[in-house]
From TrEMBL:
It comes from the Bacteria. Gene3D superfamilies: 3.40.50.2300, Winged helix-like DNA-binding domain superfamily/Winged helix DNA-binding domain. This is Transcriptional regulatory protein. The modification 4-aspartylphosphate is found at residue 57.
Length: 217
C-alpha cells in the first residue's frame, strides 16, 4: 500500500510557512503537517509526528536552522532567503538534501519533492543495494536524470536545426525561433555543443554594428 511522505515545514514567518505547506499539499504522494515556527517546536513535532522530510528555514527565533540540522536524524531540505555560498556549503555539510532560496516558484519545490520521492522509492526497491543502485538514487535526488532527458531532447532539436541549415551559419535567435525555445536556452545549448566540438562558432557583425555569434554544425 502506498503511503504519502509526511513533510514538516519549519519557518517562523507564519504566512510563508502556510504557503509552503500548501505547496507541499499540491504534490501527489506528499502530505504536509501543521507548520512550526521555532527550533524547539520543530524538535517536539519531529519526536511526536515522525515526519519523513523537514523543510527548514535558517533564520529561526531561538536557533540557527543550520545548527539544528546536525540534530535531525531524518531527511531535510533548507528553504531560506540566505543566498551566500557559506550557508549553502554549511547546509550541505550538515546533511541537507536540497537548498532553495526564497522566494521561489512553486514549481521548483514541486520538482524537488518529486525527485525526493523517486530517490526514496528507488532505495526502497531492493533489500540489498549495490553501487549502481545507489548512484541511480542519488541522480534521482539531484534531478540529474530528468535534466539529462530534457537536455537530450532539446540538444537533438538544436543539432537538427544546425544540420538543416546545410552548413550555413545560424544565430542563437534564429535557432530558438525555429524550434520554439528561448534565445537564452538556445545560446546555452549551442555553447555546450561548441565546447564539445559538435558545433563551430564565428563572430560576425550584424545590422546594429555589434558582433553576433553564428553557429554551424
Amino acid at each position: 500500500m502506498t503511503t504519502d511522505f509526511r513533510v514538516l515545514v519549519v519557518d517562523d514567518d507564519f504566512h510563508v510557512a502556510r504557503l509552503h505547506r500548501d505547496y507541499v499539499n499540491t504534490v501527489p504522494g506528499f502530505i504536509a503537517l501543521e507548520p512550526v515556527g521555532s527550533a524547539e517546536s520543530a524538535l517536539r513535532a519531529i519526536s511526536t509526528l515522525r515526519p519523513d522530510l523537514v523543510l527548514i528555514d535558517i533564520f529561526l527565533p531561538d536557533r540557527n536552522g543550520l545548527d539544528l540540522l546536525t540534530e535531525l536524524d531524518l531527511d531535510a531540505m533548507v528553504l531560506s532567503a540566505a543566498g551566500d555560498a557559506e550557508s549553502v556549503q554549511r547546509a550541505r555539510r550538515r546533511g541537507a538534501l536540497g537548498y532553495l532560496i526564497k522566494p521561489f516558484e512553486p514549481e521548483l519545490l514541486t520538482a524537488k519533492l518529486r525527485y525526493y520521492a523517486r530517490y526514496r522509492k528507488l532505495l526502497a526497491s531492493s533489500s540489498s543495494l549495490d553501487q549502481e543502485l545507489v548512484e541511480r538514487a542519488l541522480r534521482q535526488l539531484s534531478g540529474a536524470e530528468a535534466a539529462k532527458k530534457t537536455r537530450s531532447v532539446t540538444e537533438q532539436e538544436i543539432r537538427s536545426a544546425l544540420q538543416r541549415a546545410g552548413g550555413e551559419h545560424r544565430t542563437a535567435l534564429e535557432v530558438a525561433q525555429e524550434i520554439g525555445i528561448s534565445r537564452a536556452t538556445a545560446q546555452r545549448y549551442l555553447s555546450v555543443l561548441v565546447e564539445e566540438g559538435a558545433a563551430s562558432v564565428s563572430l560576425r557583425y550584424g545590422a546594429t554594428g555589434r558582433p553576433e555569434h553564428h553557429y554551424s554544425s
